[in-house]
Structures are given as structure tokens and as C-alpha cells.
Amino acid sequence: MERQQVIDALQRSSSRKGIRLSRLAKAMNASGRDRGKLKELLRTLEQEGRVYRDSQGRIFWARAVGMLPGIISVHPRQFAFVAPDEDDMEDIFIPPDDKGSAMHGDHVLVRSNGEEERPSGSVVRVLHRGMSKIVGTVRRQGRKGKPRLFPRDPRIEEEFLLEDGGAAVEDGSVVVAEILRYPGAGEPSVRITRHLGGEEEPGTGVAALMEQYDVQAEFPEAAWREADEALAVAERGQEEREDLQSLFTVTIDPEEAKDFDDALSIEPREGGGWRVWVHIADVSAYVREGSALDREARRRAFSLYLVDRVVPMLPPQLSSDRCSLRSGESRESLSVMVELDREGEVERYRITPALVEVDERLSYAEAQHILDRGAERAGGKQLLGTLRALSEVAALLERKRTKAGMLGFDMPEAEVRLDAAGTPLSVRVKERYWTYRIVEQYMVLANELVARFLEERKVPAVFRVHDTPSEEKLDRLRHLLEILGIWKGRIRPDHSAMRAITEKAKKTRRRRLIQTLLLRSLPRAQYKPAPSGHFGLALERYLHFTSPIRRYADLVVHRVVKALVVHGTPPARLMDRYAEFKAVAEHATAREETVDELERASKRMKILEYMATRTGEVFQGNISGVVSQGLFVELSNTAEGFLPVRFLEGDFYRYVEPQQAMIGSRSGKTYRLGDPIRTRVVRVQQQLGQMELEPA
After folding, report:
1. Among 679, 681, 678, which residue's Cα sits nearest to residue 615?
2. Distance of alpha carbon 69 from its chain centroid, rounded?
3. In angstroms, rounded to a whole number, what is the distance separating the alpha carbons of residues 185 and 133?
4. How far apart are the C-alpha atoms of 645 and 694, rounded to whole Å?
5. From CA 388, how far away is CA 392, in angstroms rounded?
6. Cα-flanking dihedrals φ and ψ of residue 165, to 5°?
7. Are 461 and 454 in contact (CB under 8 A)?
8. Residue 447 burial (C-beta neighbours within 10 Å; 0-12, 13-18, 19+)
9. Which residues of 497-516 are buried (b: 16+ CB within 10 A; e: fewer)?
10. Do 357 and 330 contact (CB within 8 A), yes or no?
């Protein structure tokens, strides 16, 4: 008896009244051993949420009675959404009281109301628990109260009884605990497995986040040992590398950077135009495919840049030392040489394994200072001339790409300054230098050309794909932009419409909000084993090649390029690896979302910790969202807070959704999406990740 036979029989026999096991077995002519196999297959389908069995033993094909399996995502305000296992289904809204015993991340069976637009439903059953541990703070209620664990994740509303030694733990301790009993099976309880520190200690919060997202900073012993061995063994075949050490080469990175993936060289060509080299660290020379080091890098997928620490993809002896293009040291690279004409068009290019030596290591601020003031360092006129040439060509490339439809976003980013202990000292908008965009233009150039190189040879790899925005999201964007008064009519899913919106945004005080709304209307970029275009960059093919120290996808691309350029591997042989590259791409896509979320959460944690010291102070901000309960406000230093409607005094304010506004019933005074507003910090609830504001 096969699985599909059971599914077909259930779909034929199961109605809204269900079917008994005996009748199903009879319909399938199942007896003896086949009946046992039928029971086993039904249990499996039930665990998957494909089959539902009620308390009377009746069996239902879940989909036939409006039930769907999926993963539940709980919001801090306790409503939730279930993402059905079937990709073509809309997410199902779950009201706070309809989650049953489900927790964030659980695999659940949900009963849907069947509506195609904005479907809602309730959780029928938890199929599989998504978490086995909780990170939380120990608290006692009353002098003789039992110690309980209060989860730090605001998406988990339950509190847990501490068992096995919890009585000895001090109040305020942040711990990791194994779940012994889940909600719905009696009083939820846990057992402490590790102490992270006191909740007031500066480093505890980020350490708790890392545990919550299951991030391990330590490397497995085998991976660490292989990294040490790589330091002692120079790569064979260095004589086959092109020696580019005589080129004047610079790196331009953040001031605090420890790993240096990329470096640049440039020189004018006879007859006009430029010859540019984009040198990228050849990590593949030190990370052997299939090794313990490689497996760990693949698992991590990215380096993680938290607010107070870095969790590298590779051990530091490689990421910050042997693989980094450090000033004054000979390093292996994969270099892309590009010849550009006067208009910035690519005339020819080639990719070569090389040896390079960086002459000048600059921060973005230092490079900008030299460009602005003609200031010179030890590099003298050669350094200034190189930066001016790089700047001139980058400006040309940016103009060309913008004209072609590239979407350029200049979003403010928070810069959180910490003291040595990790206590936040200040929060401000990070200064964005032109020199950052200079480097960005050359990285895009190299990435695009390597993607072209691989596409022309029809080989799979790990490409970067960004789809066209959906009509549904563009219609929502149109509605909001009409409210803001900068757009009328349909927004076409093409680059001309997007460029028109960004140009209009530049002329309004709501530029920041409009860019945020535009970004939200775009799908997330993904990794795929074949190219299919990049909407945001207006390119037919694209990939990531330029950061192999901190992105595993780039390392895979390096290996494919070297297989073709160095080893002469026939492209047909690489086709056999399509499934492997697809698995890498899917893991990297999923992991990137987690990494982005964790990096944002760590920064927001320290921002709120800082804002807690500014209670009672007044800040200028802009209304970034309007809901029936009040106003979301983004302050001038990027901190985000919420202003409850009860604090809007002097009138009765009603929420007018079509206008995205709060409007006073008597006065007509209006608080609208995008409006500037002066606010005072009332209180900060760091545990909940919330800041409450009032009008000032």
C-alpha cells in the first residue's frame, strides 16, 4: 500500500461528515498487513496536517473541511498569521483568542474561513512544536512566590514554572531553559540549562538574542583546527597567479572593519577610458569544499554584525587575517579586470586568480576627507589621483544605472555608540559618505560581469534574484502615496514608475517615509541556482561575488569561477550540481532573513536602552504609521515609538483608515501619515521592545 493510494482514497471517500477507519479500509480492500500499513500512513498524514481525526475517531481529508497546515508567526500584540505549507495560499490571520495552545514557530493545523481576501481562522491543533528552549528572565511574585520564567521574546505570552533547582536562582537572572511542559498540557514548565547574566548587565541582552535565534559564536573544534592548519600551509600553485602587486591598490571600508573582502585599482587607458581592477579575497584557496570548516560556513551562511559584536562566518584567523586584503601584505585574490570606454561602457573584461598587495587602507570618512579637501597621506599624489579617478568613474556608472532604472535608496541608518562595557552612549543617524557609493558601484560592476560570465557558459551557481513587485502591493502603495499627495493613478510594475516616485519623493519633506513605503512594496531578493533578473538594480542577471569572507553564496560562486577559469572544468559537468546549488541558495535565502532580523533586533535593543535614559525629553519625529490605537512615530535619531490615542487630549480622535489619519471630532485637527510631530518620551519597556510617547 502506497501513500498516494491512501490520499486518493481519502479524497474520494472523505466528506464533511468524515469516514471511519473500518469503512476506509473496506473501500481500499485493506486487510491484515495492509490494514496495519494503512494505520501507519494515516498517522503520518495526521502529523503532517493533511488528515484530521476528531474526538469520535472520524477521519477527514483536512483540506476538504477547510483545514490547512502551516507555520504560525505570533505578533507581540498576540494576534498571529499562519503561513500555509502550500506556497500558493494567502497567510491566514489568527485573532489573539484563537491561537489555542500554539506558540510562535509551531507547525499547526488551522481552520480557515475560506475567504480568498484576508482569510482568517483558528488553530485546531499543534502538529509539531517549533521551539524546545526558552530564553527568559527569572522573577518571583511575592516574598514566597515560586520562581517563574518570563520569556524575553514578546511573541511568547506564557510564563513558565521553574523546576529542578529554580528556587536558588536570583530574581532578574537571564537564563536559557529547556521546555518540559508546553501550554495546553497543564501548567507550562521549564528547567534551566544555562545562565547568561543579570538583566541589567550590558552584554546580557545581546547574548540572550543570540540564544533566542540559535546563534553559536564558537566554532566546532574540527573547523577551528582546519583554520589553524590553513595558516601554516601556503596554497599550491601561486606561480600560476597573475602578479598584480605592483598596482596601486586601496581598500575603503567602515572604520571599525576587521575583514577586508575587496580592494580597487584604476588607471587611465591610452586613447581614453579606464582600466579598473576589482580584487576580491580568494577565500576558496583556504576553505576546502566539503571540509568541517566549509560545512560550518555553509551552515552559518553569513557573518553576523550585531550592535556590540561580530559573529564571523569563518574563524577570525582567516576572516580577519589570512584571507583579508590587509595593507602591506601579499594576498591571494580573484580579480576582475574591466576596460571601460569614456562613457563607462564595458569593452572587455577578464577574471584572473592573482596576487595583490594593498597600499592604502582607508575608512569611508578618510577617503571622503581626501576627496573633499585634497588632503594627502603617505600615498601622496598617487592616492589622491586614484581616489579622484575612482570617484569620476563611479559617478559615471551610477548615472548610467539610474537612467536604466536602478532604484537608489538613501535610507537613514542608526549609529549606536557604546562604551567598553557595552552601555549605549549615543544614538544618531549614521553619516552616509559618497565614498560608500563609490565602492558600491564597483562591487555591482564586478557582480554583474561575473553573473554574465557564468550565464554565457550556461552553468548553475548561486545567483541573486529580485522579482518584480506584485500588483497587490503596488495598489497598496498607490493608496498611501495618494494620501500623501504625490501620486495619482495606477503604479505600473516597471522601473520608470518607480523612478518617478523616487524623484517626486526628493522634493517633499516626507522623502524618508516615501522611500520606506516603496521599499515595503518590493519583494525580498532571493538566492536561486539560475539567473532571472534583478528588478532593484535593473539588471538581467546578477549574483554576489564580492564578499566571500562574510557570505557563503559568494564563496560558492568563486569555486564555480575557478573551476572554469583555473581548472578548465567543462560547463556540462557543472550542470550535475544544480540540485546542490539550489539547496545552498534556499538555505542562504532563509538564513539571510534571520540574520537581518537579528541584526535589527540587537540594534533596536540598544537604542531602547539608550532612550530609557532620555525619559521626559522632547524629540522631533514623523508619523510613520496610523492605527486605531494611536500613532507610530519615528524620531529624528531613528528610534521608533508609539503614541497612544488616549494621549491626544482636547478632543475625541477617530481613526480614518482611508486617509491614514487621526481626526478630532470637534476641532478637525488631524494627525496624518508622514506629518512631523514633537513628542516626549513617557516610558521605555525594554523587555517588550516598546517606547511610549506623548505630544510635546
Report:
1. 681
2. 25
3. 16
4. 9
5. 6
6. 95, 5
7. yes
8. buried
9. bbbebbebbeeeebbbbbbb
10. yes
3-class DSSP state of 651: coil
Q: Cα–Cα distance between 1 and 34 in angstroms, integer?
A: 6
Q: Are strands 250-253 and 360-363 parallel, antiparallel or unpaired?
A: parallel
Q: What is the pTM of this model?
A: 0.89
The Cα–Cα gap between 531 and 540 comes to 8
| Euclidean distance between CA atoms 122 and 113, whole angstroms | 9
Alpha-carbon span 183 to 624, nearest angstrom: 36
Cα 291 from Cα 222, distance rounded (Å): 9
Q: Is pLDDT at 514 greater than 60 in this prediction?
A: yes
Kindly report the three-state secondary structure assignment for every residue of 563-624.
HHHCCCCCHHHHHHHHHHHHHHHHHHHHHHHHHHHHHHHHHHHHHHHHHHHHCCCEEEEEEE
Report the chain's C-alpha Rg in angstroms.
29
Burial 33-69 (b: 16+ CB within 10 A, else e): eebebbeebbeebbeebbbbbeeeeebbbbbebbbbb
Question: Would you list the DSSP string of 464-488?
Answer: EEBPPPPHHHHHHHHHHHHHHTS--
* Per-residue pLDDT reduced to its tens digit, 364-391: 999 999 999 886 665 578 999 999 999 9
Per-residue pLDDT averaged across 611-616, rounded?
A: 96
Please answer whether residues 341 and 349 qualify as being in contact, where contact means their C-beta atoms are separated by less than 8 angstroms: no
* Cα–Cα distance list, 169 to 55, 177, 182, 597, 652 (Å): 42, 12, 22, 31, 48
Cell numbers placing 354: 592573482
Separation CA 509–CA 513 (nearest Å)? 9
Q: Which amino acid is at 372?
A: D
Kindly state the cell numbers that stand for 122.
483558528
Cell 513605503 identifies what position? 517
- pLDDT tens-digit readout, 90-100: 899 999 999 99
CA distance 274 to 265: 10
Amino acid found at 189: S
Q: What is the mean pLDDT of residues 258-270?
A: 95
| DSSP, res 460 | -
> Which residue has 572593519 as its cell numbers?
257
Contact 308, 422 (CB under 8 A): yes
Model confidence pLDDT, tens digit, residues 208-238: 999 999 899 999 999 999 999 887 765 555 6
